[in-house]
């Protein structure tokens, strides 16, 4: 491949050749992120009954199961990123083009905002509160919050790259389930620390609808940097080696049978 073709692929010139497929991918990312914010942040709503407050396990499962569900129903269309941190990690490791990455992040943020607006519209005013907006605990500094978001997003993106490694022959389970469990696990740890965003778009949508922007930079820099580190580390150190040709032949033969 010539240098010109490589540059065109990196920028995303080829995206224009199949506008219908690319449009479907953008719509999938928009819809998936909207669903994530609607259901995930909806699980954070308080005050339905006297002294009612959602539990950490309840919120963690709502986000984890929703992510797994969304990845299941749009993964074949767009890859099921629904998260700028994952999109940037795929961009840095040259799995997607610059053009696709930029538009993915734009529609993810739009989807999150629409999801938060729908949640606000269907929730009684007394219960709306902050609509699941992510906030750093009062006893933590912004730097500590940044570190927590970096770490939990690292776990998520590392899981995504591991599950998407086509050279691995030992993964027999469900990729969407594995990713959803990573989200749920990190939520159980980090909800009290930062609200456990690990997704800049997920934090952006409720912030727009409630005007809660305190330490919002943490929810962009932490997840995106954590995603970049995880993507590069997996690609250059932990990625599985391609199986020998004879093993490939055996796998193909078994599949044919």
Task: Describe what you observe in this structure.
- It is globular and about 65 Å long.
- The model is unreliable at 253-257 (pLDDT under 50).
- The chain has 257 residues and is mostly helical.
- It is built from 11 helices and no strands.
- Helices cover 70% and strands 0% of the residues.
- Helix 4 crosses helix 10, helix 7 packs antiparallel against helix 8 (175-194) and helix 9 packs antiparallel against helix 10.
Characterize the main sheet. none
According to DSSP, the number of beta strands is 0
Amino-to-carboxy terminus distance: 36 Å
Query: Can you tell me the overall shape?
Result: globular
Give the averaged pLDDT, no decimals.
92
Instruction: Briefly note the structural class of the backbone.
Output: mainly alpha
Poorly predicted sequence stretches spanning 5 or more consecutive residues: 253-257
The secondary-structure element order is HHHHHHHHHHH
Helix count, per DSSP?
A: 11
Brief synopsis:
The protein is mainly α and 257 residues long.
Reconstruct the topology from this structure:
Blueprint: H1 3-11, H2 19-42, H3 56-78, H4 84-92, H5 98-122, H6 125-128, H7 142-163, H8 175-194, H9 200-210, H10 218-238, H11 245-256
């Amino acid at each position: 491949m010539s240098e010109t073709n490589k540059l065109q692929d990196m920028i995303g010139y080829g995206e224009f050749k199949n506008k219908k497929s690319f449009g479907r991918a953008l719509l999938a990312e928009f819809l998936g992120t909207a669903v994530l914010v609607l259901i995930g942040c909806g699980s954070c709503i308080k005050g339905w009954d006297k002294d009612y407050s959602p539990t950490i396990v309840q919120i963690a499962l709502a986000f984890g199961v929703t992510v797994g569900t969304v990845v299941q129903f749009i993964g074949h269309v767009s890859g099921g990123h629904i998260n700028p941190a994952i999109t940037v990690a795929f961009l840095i490791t040259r799995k997607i083009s610059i053009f696709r990455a930029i538009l993915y992040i734009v529609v993810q943020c739009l989807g999150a905002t629409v999801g938060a607006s729908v949640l606000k519209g269907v929730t009684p005013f007394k219960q709306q509160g902050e609509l699941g907006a992510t906030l750093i605990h009062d006893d933590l500094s912004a730097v500590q919050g940044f570190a927590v978001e970096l770490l939990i997003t690292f776990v998520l993106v590392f899981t995504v790259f591991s599950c998407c490694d086509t050279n691995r022959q030992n993964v027999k389970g469900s990729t969407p389930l594995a990713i959803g469990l990573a989200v749920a696990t990190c939520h159980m740890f980090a909800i009290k620390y930062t609200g456990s965003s690990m997704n800049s778009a997920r934090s952006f949508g409720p912030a727009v609808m409630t005007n809660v922007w305190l330490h919002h930079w943490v929810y962009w820099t932490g997840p995106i940097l954590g995603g970049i580190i995880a993507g590069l580390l997996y690609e250059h150190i932990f990625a599985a080696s391609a199986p020998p040709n004879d093993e490939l032949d055996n796998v193909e033969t078994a599949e044919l049978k």
